[in-house]
Amino acid sequence: METQTRQILEGVRNGSISVDEALMKMKSEPFEELGYAKPDLHRAVRQGYPEVIYGEGKTPEQIVGITRSLTKNGCERVIITRLSKQAAGEVAESLSISYDEVSRIAYTGNIPEPDGIGQIVIATGGTSDIPAAEEAAITAELLGNRVLRLYDVGVSGIHRLLAHRELIMSASVIIAAAGMEGALASVIGGLADCPVIALPTSVGYGASFGGLAALLSMLNSCANGVCTVNIDNGFGAGYLAAMINHMEVRK
Amino acid sequence: METQTRQILEGVRNGSISVDEALMKMKSEPFEELGYAKPDLHRAVRQGYPEVIYGEGKTPEQIVGITRSLTKNGCERVIITRLSKQAAGEVAESLSISYDEVSRIAYTGNIPEPDGIGQIVIATGGTSDIPAAEEAAITAELLGNRVLRLYDVGVSGIHRLLAHRELIMSASVIIAAAGMEGALASVIGGLADCPVIALPTSVGYGASFGGLAALLSMLNSCANGVCTVNIDNGFGAGYLAAMINHMEVRK
Amino acid sequence: METQTRQILEGVRNGSISVDEALMKMKSEPFEELGYAKPDLHRAVRQGYPEVIYGEGKTPEQIVGITRSLTKNGCERVIITRLSKQAAGEVAESLSISYDEVSRIAYTGNIPEPDGIGQIVIATGGTSDIPAAEEAAITAELLGNRVLRLYDVGVSGIHRLLAHRELIMSASVIIAAAGMEGALASVIGGLADCPVIALPTSVGYGASFGGLAALLSMLNSCANGVCTVNIDNGFGAGYLAAMINHMEVRK
Amino acid sequence: METQTRQILEGVRNGSISVDEALMKMKSEPFEELGYAKPDLHRAVRQGYPEVIYGEGKTPEQIVGITRSLTKNGCERVIITRLSKQAAGEVAESLSISYDEVSRIAYTGNIPEPDGIGQIVIATGGTSDIPAAEEAAITAELLGNRVLRLYDVGVSGIHRLLAHRELIMSASVIIAAAGMEGALASVIGGLADCPVIALPTSVGYGASFGGLAALLSMLNSCANGVCTVNIDNGFGAGYLAAMINHMEVRK
Amino acid sequence: METQTRQILEGVRNGSISVDEALMKMKSEPFEELGYAKPDLHRAVRQGYPEVIYGEGKTPEQIVGITRSLTKNGCERVIITRLSKQAAGEVAESLSISYDEVSRIAYTGNIPEPDGIGQIVIATGGTSDIPAAEEAAITAELLGNRVLRLYDVGVSGIHRLLAHRELIMSASVIIAAAGMEGALASVIGGLADCPVIALPTSVGYGASFGGLAALLSMLNSCANGVCTVNIDNGFGAGYLAAMINHMEVRK
Amino acid sequence: METQTRQILEGVRNGSISVDEALMKMKSEPFEELGYAKPDLHRAVRQGYPEVIYGEGKTPEQIVGITRSLTKNGCERVIITRLSKQAAGEVAESLSISYDEVSRIAYTGNIPEPDGIGQIVIATGGTSDIPAAEEAAITAELLGNRVLRLYDVGVSGIHRLLAHRELIMSASVIIAAAGMEGALASVIGGLADCPVIALPTSVGYGASFGGLAALLSMLNSCANGVCTVNIDNGFGAGYLAAMINHMEVRK
Amino acid sequence: METQTRQILEGVRNGSISVDEALMKMKSEPFEELGYAKPDLHRAVRQGYPEVIYGEGKTPEQIVGITRSLTKNGCERVIITRLSKQAAGEVAESLSISYDEVSRIAYTGNIPEPDGIGQIVIATGGTSDIPAAEEAAITAELLGNRVLRLYDVGVSGIHRLLAHRELIMSASVIIAAAGMEGALASVIGGLADCPVIALPTSVGYGASFGGLAALLSMLNSCANGVCTVNIDNGFGAGYLAAMINHMEVRK
Amino acid sequence: METQTRQILEGVRNGSISVDEALMKMKSEPFEELGYAKPDLHRAVRQGYPEVIYGEGKTPEQIVGITRSLTKNGCERVIITRLSKQAAGEVAESLSISYDEVSRIAYTGNIPEPDGIGQIVIATGGTSDIPAAEEAAITAELLGNRVLRLYDVGVSGIHRLLAHRELIMSASVIIAAAGMEGALASVIGGLADCPVIALPTSVGYGASFGGLAALLSMLNSCANGVCTVNIDNGFGAGYLAAMINHMEVRK
Question: What is the pLDDT of residues B121-153, one digit of tens each?
Fold first, then answer.
């Protein structure tokens, strides 16, 4: 940032840039105005990641428009989350995308080679937690991570989890996805010595209150190194895990 | 009940009891009126257990009065819960009681010989859960049960719990007391094949909301054979455990 | 468990098992990997009960797959809960199952002869609570219990309940299912001298908040010997009742 | 109201009152301005009852000031609720009041002869609910009602309540005060055929959430003829009961 | 009750009834067993009102069955609440009923002549509150009351309410139905000197949380003589109003 | 008001109006009775604005009826909010209206020339907040304000917002519409020195709880000059903004 | 902002400022670093108001330090809110301040001459709401507004409010402070045709839940032109009212 | 773990360890039994960090006992969190500890040289958030991290935050501590391209509900790479930040 400003200032000093041009340059922002959205064309550069579109509540036309704007400006890979199967079909008529039904993620381009520190383990308490877990898994894979899925290892049958204790011990980052009582995060947090991202899901009934029980349980985890994302926010969990798994690469 | 009524009716038939006397007898109830309370003098007989006084919110004078009324009517053992140390001191000036500071339970008479089916295991997630657990433990002991304490075995260090797996497998009933995320009940529920009573405690801070997180977590337990009592209700957990542990004796 | 480990160790000592084989054996767990689920093949043995599949959120194909895996491994009876009528029809094309529409429970095999301590009484406050109550009832029957249904005995017409006082007094375990204000559990808890499992239902409107009013009411019951399960968790109530009703048999 | 306006208008017509005087008169309101409060001097007339001061959060000086203003304007009886013992002592130095410690009610003048339709029954679930119940009872007595107290008849010992079934059947209005699970209102509502005012109290712990459990339970009562007032609002319950008990007198 | 028992006892004394017959008579209860419901055949007598069936969650067949059982046993008027238009059509094929679409109430027999103390005023804040208000109005009319409807007089246009001040002052009982902020009950409570039944409705959006805002507002009303029923519980409000409006008749 | 009353009084004094006529006039209110609604015909005059009909829960017939009544009484512009596309179609068959699909607002007459103090800026956090924002925008425009839309400037890409800092600094009033974490209001509140109306939207998932997270966030804003309206209440925000933007005009 | 940047750029062009100096100038921020706080020295200029310190949770030393830093930098008037009497005493030893006990506001300098558009009316429902109302009143006065207090005009005695209808009609902005059911805001909102700021207070008990009932009531107000601030946030209400009352001055 | 088991198995094979000894060894766990707690002596080794004692709710004697047990078993550094000043004084009489009053952390040994990937930035919204932030800061320093404090940079004065944009861009991990509306996490999350740990604090009043508003706000953050810990859980935030900042070192 400073470098850019310095260049402009030096341009002003040596007369190659007028004061008005300088003012304009310093205010101009790297995003494009589409009316209904302002795709952030430099974020990919700024944060070192593909651009992500939250698909829920956007029309297929809007998604196509934003994706094209991003692609036109040099973004190699666009990830679209929370895209219904039907909307994905409509988008696919205009754009070349891959679509995963379980996670409801679409993307342009290919899944890159994994290049992170280690392996991200994604565990679920039950089979119903798989959609949220897959949103995290595909996200992490699209961001260049090797992902190991460990599904249906809920704490009520603790031996299923303990049978994989070594996998857990060797992970770089772990995402623990669970609904109902959400105890999986605490148990994994106690077994592992790496960051654990707790992903509460809305799976359950009655007093689970749409994932609130799991969320509160995870926030109150007595294990160290555990943090929590929003209910069913698989994308957020996968994104953060990818970030942590690339700590050394980023430096 | 039927027997009593039959006796009265037969008295009416054979003329030994007048109709008015019969009407009176059939309405008279086995409780004594103290003005501020109606001690239930036949409950001990009716339910096969000592009488219990909830001490919180009662003055030492009221507690002494109710206890005397119960004792006078043949109740051998009176249990007083939620009694502060200071109130216990005042009660002890008028009555011969034993008092346990941790559980805040006072009682008249002695702890009976255990005679239940097996052994009640009481586990806690941390040391701060011990007061609620002790309320359960002392209650169960006063109701004739052998109690095994397994404290500070929270799920964030699962090996501490697993080291005692055989104890858990051999229990007759288990009480799992935990605050914070309350995951202990689910893990024990998965390990054990006996009834597990989940006892949420108000231990925690922030989003534990005074035990709500643990309560919701326990209600949503995905393990079979788990039920829940109110937050910090050690007495209720101990009483129910005692009842279950005397199932064969009761028949 | 110890016996198995001892056998392996003795095999190592006498040379019939190599160290590597022993390591492998000690880690191998008795569950089968289906990709989307890990049916726990030894739980039936470990906990003395049929295996249970939570049907909600699973496809008919997944249910058929898990049931076959369990049956192939010697599980005589599989219980599938929360199965919609339509899904049950699809499952029935591949598997021989019985299906009960009210409770939405399907199962393989027959209902066994009851062999518990006594009789489980299941009471409801109104007719709308019957589906949850039937989930409990069928579950208990499938686990070998005699069940007595006492429906529509809510506390606003207390004489309906009191007319059955002797049934209540003679029960081994009672399940009290109620929505709205959930007062049934407390009244029954005061009448009975056996464990009472409070089953809040989501029946009600307005400030019942989907069963929350009944749940809180039941958790705060002033009667002794009462515990609570999750809202509408008829299966959990029936399973726990069955466990308690087999206390003497299990020893 | 109409009469007053008519008189003014007739005064205008016959010239005894000028238009400006008439405008002024029609705006003047029968309350006195004390700066910190506007005692409503005509409410006693308008609603047929003594004036009531909510004592909490007012200084003894303010209470004395408002009471004097009311008395000076012809109000025979002033009721002060939620008055701490200490504040009552300070008020008593300036005013002649009676004070009841349990209900924390003070009042000027005497308790009137009861003149309502019948008798108001006030029942409590336990001894801890007595302060709220007494606030209702003293209020009703000060408003001219005969009150029958039926304390400690909670539903977990239903025979204590049933023993008084005839009292309940004969009441004109019933106030059912209970904390914890608040089931008393439903049971009484089913037994009685008169209006039942449910008075939730903040008695309880854990998931009673300061009376919320009892409040929700009472709002969801499946009995007919039940309504609810705010938690611990004994005054409101007593006032409404008095109003109902004077229905025929008022006509 | 006492009379009946006395007759039985005298029969026993004079030998016209055997002890066993007496025992049987004293236990027999006046309700009929339909399997899915226990219609309370004597409640009409016991409480002086028609029998009411809560229609929601019952099949047309069940409603027809219960209604026939009640009618057969002498109940002149049956009220069915929360009956959808479609269900009403199906019931009408088997039974002669009147049906009101707005209130969703059906009933057998005719609306009786009003005979209460005075007139019940039912006010609503807006037009969307009318269905709940009509449930109350029709209920009250079916229970023998004259009802005056005062709709769309919400407090944000206070002059609409004040224009009807005299109606309000002259009412015997008032029902104030409002959603959103529920302020209507307080304002009417301040204007009237008769009991006011606050009926919160689920009308609103956003932070009205399905009627919770109105409910809390009404429970906290600073006006005297106000009580509250459950959200959208028009029937409960109408029933209680009818009870209060018949206070003098009942004595 | 005073003028009207004075005129009546003077009429009484000079005999041109009888006392009874005067009484009648003083009570008559300027609203028309339609049975289902009481359109307030003088509000437009009283508050200086067009009349507004809340369309949700009203039938097209009712909307047409109320609109005609208002128009007939001289109301030039009627605004109908929360009108579905289908209902708008039906209304349009009877009335000449304009309809905007995004905001779901219909209106009679034209959008007036803006005449407020300055310009109202309406910002949204994302594209999904646009419907609520447009409800505010169209409302403000219909009330005579110039509106500048600044959409998709959420705080997670703060440079998008900062790029428009001058617009924000120059606004007369700002409406900040955001769901999810609702942080937009605080950031704008810190940048601007004009009133900021925070408009929480129900956009989000999981722990956004239908807009509750944004609502609480906005209520707790640490910026000065910020107030909050109900979740998704775009109309309320637009109306208040218009009122503030006409402060000098009104004097 | 642009002007400043332009001046710097022109200085660079004409050589009077070096590139490094320009870079430094453009980054330098007008706040002073005290370690524990960053007083914003230019905010007074930027927002046209005195600087405000939130006193709660700050030590008297910190308050003195921040105030001195602000004064030293040219801030004429510093307002300190939420200052306990004791803390005010300690601050007064080091600084010359005025302190108001009811509102708990301290300030340096004098109360300025009012110069706003009109008069701000501050109404309260009861006498207990006065502290919050006074926080708003003193704040508004310190910001140059004429304030009219209208206390104890709650809606349960609507004539007290209506007696002041003309004051309400003539206000420039109104603040409606109320606890309990918070209905005051809606009624005033309907009477007034100026912006109404609803100020919920924590006054109440039971189901008022610390002001939540009033807050929800106010957010759901059906009156137009009403917005809401946080519970007990008198400062926020007063600040916003002052801003609105200076709309024409600011242009 | 495998290595240890392999050694034991090889000992069995070669006869140096008997089967019973092997069984015993394999069950023995590296924790010491103190009765009231089970210090986990190998956790330091297992997780690569000092042992931590949660001080709240433990007596000074218990803290001294646990610390000594840990030290005796080779733990070089013990961290005690949530220790009151008074308790710290009592502990200091028996142990050589350092104590920090603001964060309420005590520790044995010295603060180690920082050796992580980069620098941890800890930002707060206001000065009242400093205690929670310091708990995080001291924790991170004790775990070998360089920490940069950026206090009082709340979003309502966004320029204070933007002035430090480069620090934020260069951080390895950021902890954003804020109460009230908690918007800081989202804004920082948008500026930074490293993991951001959101730390909600209980600072605030009214509708902040003890930190709930900030917690919900943070969970709903629309910025990528943000996760959340429990309210006021500075230790948890610091611990996780330390873990992430040592990602490359750990491999």
Answer: 999 999 899 999 999 999 999 999 999 999 999
Does B167 reach chain E within 8 Å, measured CB to CB? no
Report pLDDT digits (tens) over B88-110.
999 999 999 999 999 999 999 88
Give A39's pLDDT tier (boundaries 50, 70, 90).
low
Minimal C-alpha gap between C206 and chain E (Å)? 5
Minimum-distance CB partner of F159 among A29, A35, A212? A29
The alpha-carbon gap from B152 to the nearest alpha carbon of chain A, in Å, equals 12
- Residue G120 CA from chain centroid, whole number: 13
Task: Name the residue facing F37 among E152, E206, E208 (closest C-beta).
Answer: E152
Under DSSP, the state recorded for A235 is: H
Query: ipTM more than 0.90?
Result: no
Mean pLDDT of G214-235: 95
For domain B119-245, give the CATH number.
Answer: 3.40.50.1970
Q: To 10 degrees, the CA torsion angle through A109, A114, A120, A121?
A: 80
F19 contact D CB<8A? yes
Using the predicted structure, report yes or no on whether residue F202 has a pLDDT greater than 70.
Answer: yes
- DSSP code per residue over chain D: -HHHHHHHHHHHHTTSS-HHHHHHHHH--SB---SS---BTTHHHHHTS-EEEE-TT--HHHHHHHHHHHHHTT---EEEES--HHHHHHHHHHS--EEETTTTEEESS-PPPP-SSSEEEEEESSGGGHHHHHHHHHHHHHTT-EEEEE-S--GGGHHHHHTTHHHHHH-SEEEEEE-TT-THHHHHHHH-SS-EEEEE-----GGGGGGHHHHHHHHT--STTEEE--TT-HHHHHHHHHHHHTHHHH-
Looking at chain B, which residue has its C-alpha nearest residue H25?
B163
Q: Which of F27, F29, F57 sits opposite E160 (nearest CB)?
A: F29
The shortest CB-CB distance from F158 to any of H157, H191, H214 is to: H191
Q: What is the pTM of this model?
A: 0.86
Identify the three-state secondary structure at position H169: helix
Which band of pLDDT confidence, cut at 50, 70 and 90, is reported for residue B56? confident
Assign G187 to helix, strand or coil. Answer: helix
Read off the tokens for H65.
């006992």
Residue C9 has pLDDT above 80, yes or no: no
Closest CA to C36 of C12, C62, C55, C14: C62
Q: Which residue of A has its CA nearest to H50?
A: A224
Q: Determine which of B54, B115, B244, B245 to mutate to test the interface with C (most C C-beta atoms within 10 Å).
A: B244
Would the pLDDT of A230 be above 50? yes
Ranges of each domain in chain G: 1-29, 31-107, 119-245
Contact: H229, A224; criterion CB under 8 Å: no
Q: Which residue in F has a C-alpha nearest to residue E204's C-alpha?
A: F56
Output the CA–CA distances (angstroms, integers) from residue H251 to F34, G192, H51, in the order listed: 78, 69, 21
Put simply, the answer to whether G230 touches F220 (Cβ < 8 Å) is: yes
Determine the Cα–Cα distance for residues B20 and B12; give it in Å rounded to an integer.
10
| B186 touching A (Cβ < 8 Å) | yes
pLDDT at E218 (0 to 100): 96
pLDDT in tens, D155-209: 888 888 888 888 898 899 999 999 998 899 999 998 898 999 999 999 999 999 9
Question: Is residue G27 scored above 70 in pLDDT?
Answer: no
Nearest to C139 by CA among C41, C44, C241: C241
Cα–Cα distance between D7 and D20 in angstroms, integer? 15
Q: Which pLDDT score is estimated for C83?
A: 95
* Whole-number average pLDDT of chain H: 85
Chain A residues close to F126, C-beta within 8 Å: 54
Tell me the shortest Cα–Cα distance from D7 to chain B, in angstroms. Answer: 57
Give the closest of G46, G117, G244 to F251, CB-based: G117
